[in-house]
Write a structure and sequence with these properties.
Length: about 150
């Protein structure tokens, strides 16, 4: 594999981003498996547990997932008693996703696992490099400055 690191592909930012995502998500999914979660379902639970009151549409747009995927993730989490759909005060036609007490409890445990996986994945980076990476990814992912 080292021989392939000299390829043009290995210098392509889009490829490197996809590869890094696969590596980091894979490591996180291994740690989350014992909790019955994956990175995608954790992402929904994480946003629902921050008192932001995201709608399913907002979750879909923010996470870059098809709305049907978000519905399936919310259904699964709701079936486990981890989130609930509540009326949206801003739009009566919409529902917001809110973490339950059990969901918040599981979220706390899951975040510890994900952070441990992240620490292992990013161990070769200094704190400053991690901060810079996050700032650059924010620009790419959301066209926003930190």
């Amino acid at each position: 594999m080292d021989r392939l690191l000299t390829s043009d592909l290995a210098a392509d930012p889009a490829f490197l981003l996809a590869r890094a995502r696969a590596v980091t998500s894979g490591a996180a999914n291994v740690r989350l498996a014992a909790l019955g979660l994956k990175v995608r379902s954790l992402s929904v639970l994480w946003l629902a547990g921050q008192d932001l009151g995201p709608s399913q549409r907002e979750l879909s747009e923010f996470l870059g997932l098809d709305p049907s995927q978000v519905v399936a993730l919310v259904d699964e989490l709701q079936g486990r008693g981890l989130v609930e759909r509540q009326p949206d005060e801003r739009d009566r036609r919409s529902r917001i996703i809110v973490a339950t007490v059990d969901g918040r409890r599981l979220l706390k445990r899951a975040l510890a696992e994900v952070r441990a996986a992240g620490d292992a994945s990013f161990a070769r980076l200094t704190d400053e490099q991690r901060k810079t990476l996050a700032e650059l990814l924010l620009k790419v992912a959301f066209d926003r400055e930190p």
